[in-house]
Each structure stands twice: as structure tokens, then as C-alpha cells.
Design brief:
Elements lengths: L1 H21 L3 H6 L5 H21 L10
Helix pairs in contact: 1-3
């Protein structure tokens, strides 16, 4: 779960970088605009992954991949 959350968080951060630098929303472009249901699902998953990654800050002595 940690690895999936990190991957989704990285995707989200790259997308926000593109929005900030080039005003280009890759997720919206790939999935039919910001209001498209698939885009909204991706945005929601990235948001949930970000919340999950908060828990990584408070884990001590554990590997990120959960092993």
C-alpha cells in the first residue's frame, strides 16, 4: 500500500509541477478534462494517497515498502 501511495503522490506532484510551470494539466488532457469522471477518480486517488503518505512521516524504523 505504501508503494502505491508513493507512486500516486509522485504522479500528482508531477502533474502539479506541469500545471505550475506550463499551465498544462496532464491528467485532464489524458482523461477528457477536469470534469470527466475518470479524471475526478484519478484526482481523488492521488488525494487519498497523499493522506496515506502522511503516515509515513510518523513511522520509525520501518522500511517504506512495509517489509
Amino acid at each position: 500500500m505504501d508503494t502505491i501511495a508513493l507512486i500516486l503522490s509522485i504522479i500528482g506532484s508531477l502533474n502539479w509541477g506541469l500545471v505550475g510551470i506550463f499551465q498544462f494539466d496532464l491528467v485532464a488532457w489524458l482523461f477528457g478534462g477536469q470534469d470527466a469522471i475518470l479524471s475526478r477518480i484519478i484526482y481523488a486517488l492521488v488525494g487519498l494517497a497523499g493522506l496515506w503518505c502522511i503516515s509515513l512521516l510518523f513511522r520509525k524504523g520501518q522500511r517504506v515498502d512495509g517489509e
